[in-house]
Amino acid sequence: MAGHSHFSPANVEEHFEFTSDTRKKLMVAMVVGAVLLGIGVLFPGGGEHEAAHAVAGHAAEHGAELTGGAVSHHETSWNPLNRLWVNLWLNGVYFSGIAVIGMFFVALQYLTKSGWSSVVKRVPEAFPRFLFFTAPLMILLFIFKGDVIFHWMHHGIMDPANEHYDKIIAGKKGYLNFNFFLIRMVLIFGAWITLWTVMRKKSIEEDLIGGNENFFKMVRIGTGFIVAMGISASLSAWDWVMSIDTHWFSTMFGWYMFASWHVSGIATIILTIVLLKEQGYMKYVNENHLHDLGKLMFAFSIFWTYVWFAQFLLIYYANMAEETIYFLERWEGHGGIYKASEILNIFLNFFFPFLIMMTRDAKRTTIFLKICCAFVLVGHYFDFYQMIMPGTVGPHGGFGFIEFGTLILFASGFIYAVATELTKASLVAKNHPFLEEALHHDI
Amino acid sequence: MNTTAEKYLVGVYDDEDEVLHAVSEVKENGVKIEEVFTPFPIHGLDKALGHPRTRIPIAAFLFGLTGLTCAQFLINYTMVFDWPIIIGGKDFFSLPDWIPISFEGTVLFTAFGMVFTFLASNSLWPGKEPKTFDLRSTDDKFIMAVNMANNKKSEAEIEAILKASGAIEVNVKQF
What we know:
By secondary structure, chain A is mainly α. Chain A is built from 17 helices and no strands.
């Protein structure tokens, strides 16, 4: 009979094995990523169109008006290594987001006391382990290479006596200054990591002692995390990404970046579960659970589009020069090198998920889910690429060895960290009070 | 009296698991079930009854398409063709501005269309006398209706099958 599975909380416990073979493959991937990155750093311009550099001189003058970002002021002192720092920052933001969405997903399930997700929750629960890598990396990048990434950190930009003085940016000094930014950054990462660590401890403890006590504790931690996330999602969006284009601002930006993170996080959760299932794990996760997760991915792709478009439409419609610059820079600034990824962004993140995930059957079929997850993950990489690159590397950007190498390096690092974390506990929370309900989930 | 009377045998069950199992049991005994009425949704009941997948999404899609077309016609006729106005320095035909209206037109037509589809498919038009097999199906009983016109078996045979499958009572209902 439908909805009656032969699994019961007593027989579902299983442990993920991170085989040395998989470990080796990931190591190879990391080395490949590092080598590509090295090639990109040693031979700047290799792998990307030389034309971008030919027009760079022109674009720099033109770009001075077409950019709200960092490039225009530092045209003379361009260091090819800058592109590496910016790429590390880009991937740091993207993967921190995916990692923290794992915690967000779990917290949300506890806040709403959802039952269906208790079979899958150990997967997103493992994601935030990667924050232990990205948090120090991003903090160090900010401290030592912040002036490469952020326009407002350029030397002398807030000093009226300096030739680089910018009155508008100096007006934002109360919020955008080194110390306050660093404090916020440490607090954001600190809150995420602390709450996750406590949650994870309670979750593993639940496997050993059982009972409902830990469940209610986790509801409380989860609620706290949602509050923290409500504030930190916006703060991190303004700080880490929006302040790159210092002159420009958008009240939609916090939502926009959170939507981007959220849908990438859900795609990662689905992809991880499907891949685990293909290796023979998580047999108790049936197509009904995948259907629910697929619905979330479908819905949040549209949510992202809604926010992206709302931000775009208001700017387009109002037609004010200081706002349209943001889209103009991406559309035709810097010799037009960001136009393709801007178009790709919409197709990968809206049209493809919308059309692929529309039907009920697609959400219950792993191959469609996998294709859609791949589109969403690549698409949202490009989304962050579009947010960060034009304002930082500008005409020196492009998609070359550095970009590809850094992405591979981060992705394999993320898989490595999550796989290691997954081995530390049963793949299913075997004493979760709603597990029985989840095993018989039927929609 | 109604001359074209439809005759139904109505089995009353008082447990959701029982009615779910009864459906397959009754079907196995060669009785065609018209419909099962329950106070709340029962998982797997649709599948057990063998109802075909609903075509509601297709109706929704067609209503949406109609709405999109109407919205596009309205905007294009008024803003581009009949009385062109320059707004915000944009072209007369400026697609991004029209997405909200296109979206709203699609949603509006779909919403109304689906309400009317729902009413029509449930025979809920004004003046229609409701077909209620047993009032307790809105309270705590699960009702299985068997249309005699669709079954070759005799009334006594079907009654025995329903009783055997766990029905606490079997009534005759005529409309």
